[in-house]
Amino acid sequence: MSVPAPDVPPPRSFARNLVPTLAFVLLAGIVGPIFLVVGLSLPADDPNAAWLLPVGIAITVVDVLVAVMVAHHRTDRQRRTWELRTRGRRARGRVLSFEQTNVRINDQPQVVIRLLIEGDDIAPFEAQARTVVRDVHVPLLHTGVLPVLIDPETDAWEIDWEAAQVVSPTALAGSAEPERPAAERLAELDDLLRRDLVSREEYDAARARILEDL
Predict the structure, then answer these.
(1) Distance from the CA of 51 to the CA of which of 19, 60, 113, 147 falls in 20 to 30 A?
(2) d(CA 162, CA 151)
(3) pLDDT per position as a tens digit, 109-147
(4) pTM value?
(5) Closest of 173, 204, 214, 167 to residue 188, by C-alpha
(6) Pairing of strands 122-132, 108-119
(7) Half-sphere exposure of 137 (CA within 13 A, CB side)
(8) Ranges of the chain whose pLDDT falls below 70
């Protein structure tokens, strides 16, 4: 069954991703634009202009190319996520293995996860991804099963961490994230059921666990 998610905002355009990315990259590599401006302002016969201008152009071109690549990757990732959340189908990902790579990106661990993805009208298949997982979500990998959104036409998939942390709240008991009020968790659980991101059985089990904590 497709996931109805009318509240999912559309992905940002390439231009909207490029502008802030380009500004950040140029600021980080500002020596290139500085050399370029200084080189253009010097007289043509100034010996410094002979190296400042070409070096400034080269660094600035590299900055722009890096910004374009990053913006393209970000736009493509946002588009895939939007397509999964608007047209994807709910499935289960059985955790076969996972290991940390000892790499942290934005102070969050990068993890290699191997799943067996299965669901209604979906032929089971194994998938592996190297992805960044929030520290607070790492305990969810120990639950053994994670909710997954999948495009049955392309087999593109992603773990639905939002649904996972509601369905398996006990896995987060030792995390640094403060426990949310029961009313908020119940409302979020109702929303997940409405959007068909959890099954009725998962909903009933999660609701019972939340009520037991009252």
Answers:
(1) 19
(2) 18
(3) 999 999 999 887 788 999 999 999 988 888 888 878 888
(4) 0.61
(5) 167
(6) antiparallel
(7) 21
(8) 1-8, 167-180, 195-198, 213-214
Quick check: 194 and 186 in contact, CB under 8 A? no
Taking alpha carbons only, the member of 107, 186, 172 closest to residue 140 is: 172
Contact 166, 185 (CB under 8 A): yes
**Burial of residue 213 (number of CB atoms within 10 Å: 0-12, 13-18, 19+):** exposed
Give the C-alpha separation, 140 to 105, whole Å: 19
Task: Tell how far CA 99 is from the center of its chain.
Answer: 18
Q: How far apart are the first and last CA of the chain?
A: 33
Do residues 93 and 147 make contact, with C-beta atoms less than 8 angstroms apart? Answer: yes
- Amino acid at the residue 149: L
Q: Which amino acid is at 107?
A: D
Helix (H, G, I), strand (E, B) or coil at 44: coil
Q: What is the mean pLDDT of the chain?
A: 82
The Cα–Cα gap between 132 and 104 comes to 8
How far apart are alpha carbons 88 and 107 in whole angstroms? 30
109, two tokens:
């661990």
The angle subtended at Cα 156 by Cα 150 and Cα 158, nearest 5°, is 60
